[in-house]
Specification:
The chain is an alpha/beta fold. It has 21 helices and 13 strands. Among the domains are: 84 residues, Arginyl tRNA synthetase N-terminal domain (Gyrase A, domain 2, 2-Layer Sandwich); 94 residues, no CATH class; 112 residues, 3-Layer(aba) Sandwich (Rossmann fold). The strands form four sheets. The chain has a four-stranded antiparallel β-sheet. A four-stranded parallel β-sheet has the order 6-5-10-11, sandwiched between helices. Strand 3 and strand 4 form a beta hairpin. The radius of gyration is 29 Å and the shape is globular. The structure holds one RNA strand of 77 nucleotides.
Length: 576
RNA sequence: GUUCUUGUAGCUCAGUUGGAUAGAGCGUACGCCUCCGACGCGUAAGGCCAAGGGUUCGAUUCCCUUCAAGAACACCA
């Protein structure tokens, strides 16, 4: 059976045509007056304007036509021309017994850029949203039939690396990496992520206080960018260690990338791109620097030109960003690139995107999408800091949530407590992170997010596990649940109606590139199920067809729950 | 300073081309377990949608003004 809303709007479209009304799109929504109907169509009021007719009259014409279709149980016209629709049991049963949750494959390729980890620096809380939103969007795209590629786009080529290497040299001048006369393979020196984590903040601080040190660091950065043999080899060792470390943390968040490329990869394309840009004639000189002007006549705020080359000849963030696009178009040629990054970077990306289109690195038929997200702040609404004022590491955040989850975990669970607490912790963090609209800033509140009450990950998990264990028990008792034959009992109908909305929810999330519709829908499913569950005693129901119908319905709800949780990259433990 | 974003219940937030009586969660008050997971469910109180004006049958939504908060604004990433 096709998507329910599509079916309904097709029926209304037909009815409109039969009454000689032309309309491009029929939008039906859940009723906000459930006392009058289950769905509503408000189009009669718009048609009234277009056809200069009384909207109530139009609504009644449509009503009369629709009433011949046994699909509808009740149709009424209210107020200035609202059409309220209720569906017959037969139609709902037909839908629920043959629901279509799948989407056909298409060949569009969407490239998602999210994560943005920096090499030699541990991931911090600022990296959380990008990973959560990006991974969920990627899974959503896949579910809806799109091809995807994801890249974490590592920050692996700038001054931070120069600082780290310099400090390592100061401490270990005898390493072969630093011997300019050394030939042959360099022996590994056993860099660890713990070492890197300690070295970078130290060097970074020192560079701020010590001018001489900063100069040395700049020199070191230059050596790296020139790929001096020993320095480059050390960089490779650092990269390997750091990359594995980063992958480990992303793994905890169920986040995986197709590509772990970085600025160093894009940098290789810079010379080629510069030649190309020159040929395109888009580069201009300005105050000793080379820029691409990107302002447009109707800009209210003058968009400053994109800086391509500094007056000292060096390249910048925007240069590598543009080179990254150049590289991606050349290698992967995606139809769209989505950037899931902090919304404060909007202007920067606007410049780069404009430069990309202007120089025809990206053709007009392709989409560069900026999906900026709001900042996660501390409980007090101020930027999230540790007690000593530093930025909190992502691992520490996850550990604190895990510790809290473990503390709250039911005592009668004796096995796999650690693993279960981990699943709960990740669900907690992800659900809380995806609940607000993508662009909204939100405050991290440990107690609130870990609570079992309300719109929280644990509540969703609890409800899902409840469904699962109920179905398991039914199976153990050899209760069949292959179809639904009757709609009886409190909230049974509500659950079916809620399910019809799945397609809208997924499409809205795709269009808005925000997951809050999905998290909210999961919450609705869970509460509706819990209401249904408390008011109907399912396994002890004596009427066999009612029992089977209920169990079948639960199996569908459970399935949808799993589909959605999987899109959000949340694991469901067996027990909690 | 310029531009953009935001302002919705005590708190945290939804609200999709303008629609009927503005929705959730938390918190508060009061209820519901001899029964499938009470880590659950129910009921109630709580609002001048920042303020003022405009557009129209109709505005939290669109336009203008004011106030308040936040962000961005070329040689950092």
């Amino acid at each position: 059976m096709q998507k329910f809303y599509k079916l309904m709007s097709d029926k209304i479209k037909d009815a409109l045509l039969k009454n000689d009304y032309q309309v491009n799109e029929v939008i039906i929504s859940e009723s906000n007056r459930p006392d009058l109907g289950e769905f509503q169509y408000n189009g009669a009021m718009n048609l009234a304007k277009e056809y200069h007719k009384n909207p109530v009259l139009i609504a009644n014409e449509i009503k009369t036509t629709l009433e011949q279709d046994p699909f509808f149980k009740d149709i009424n016209v209210a107020g200035p021309g609202f059409i309220n629709l209720s569906i017959s049991d037969d139609a709902l049963l037909k839908y629920i017994n043959n629901p279509d949750f799948s989407y056909p494959k298409n060949d569009k390729l969407i490239f998602l850029d999210y994560g943005g980890a920096n090499v030699a620096k541990s991931l911090h809380v600022g990296h959380l949203r990008s990973a959560n939103i990006g991974e969920a969007l990627k899974r959503l795209c896949n579910y809806l039939g799109y091809n995807t590629l994801s890249d974490t786009h590592l920050g692996d080529w700038g001054r931070p690396l120069g600082l780290v290497i310099l400090e390592l040299k100061k401490r270990n001048p005898s390493w072969a990496y630093f011997d300019e006369n050394y030939k042959g393979e360099y022996p590994k020196v056993g860099i660890t992520s713990a070492l890197l984590e300690e070295v970078y903040p130290y060097a970074s601080l020192k560079a701020k206080e010590d001018e001489e040190y900063l100069k040395e660091a700049q020199k070191m950065t230059k050596s790296l960018q020139e790929r001096k043999r020993g320095i480059y080899a050390l960089w490779q060792e650092i990269m390997e260690v750091s990359k594995n470390d980063i992958k480990e943390i992303y793994k905890r968040l169920n986040t995986h990338y197709n590509l772990y490329k970085g600025e160093s990869d894009a940098e290789k394309y810079v010379p080629e791109m510069l030649l190309y840009l020159d040929k395109q004639g888009v580069v201009e000189e300005s105050e000793g620097a080379k820029v691409i002007p990107v302002s447009l006549p109707d800009d209210k705020l003058e968009v400053p030109p994109m800086l391509l080359i500094k007056s000292d000849g060096g390249i910048l963030y925007s240069t590598t960003e543009l080179a990254t696009i150049y590289e991606r178009m050349k290698i992967n040629n995606p139809d769209e690139i989505w950037y899931i990054v902090d919304k404060r970077q909007e202007l920067h990306f606007k410049q780069v995107f404009r430069a990309a289109y202007k120089s025809k690195i990206v053709s007009e038929d392709k989409k560069l999408v900026f999906a900026g997200f709001g900042t996660m702040n501390g409980k007090d609404g101020k930027p999230f800091k540790t007690r000593d004022g530093g930025v909190m590491r992502l691992t520490d955040l996850l550990e604190s949530v895990k510790a809290e989850s473990l503390k709250r975990l039911n005592d009668n669970i004796t096995e796999n407590r650690e693993e279960i607490a981990e699943d709960i912790a990740i669900s907690t963090v992800k659900y809380a992170d995806l609940l607000p609209n993508r662009e909204t800033d939100y405050n991290f509140d440990l107690d609130k997010f870990c609570s079992l009450d309300g719109k929280t990950g644990p509540y969703i998990l609890y409800s899902t596990i409840r469904m699962k264990s109920l179905l398991k028990k039914a199976k153990e008792n050899n209760f069949k649940y292959e179809k639904m034959t009757i709609i009886k009992g409190n909230h049974t109908r509500d659950l079916i109606l809620l399910l019809t909305n799945l397609d809208n929810v997924l499409n809205n999330a795709f269009n808005s590139k925000s997951l809050n519709d999905v998290t909210d829908y999961l919450y609705k499913l869970a509460t509706c199920f819990n209401r249904f569950y408390t008011e109907n005693i399912i396994l002890k129901e004596t009427n066999e067809s009612i029992k089977e119908s209920w169990l079948y319905l639960i199996s569908i709800i459970y399935k949808v729950n799993n589909i959605l949780l999987d899109i959000l990259a949340i694991n469901v433990p067996d027990k909690m």
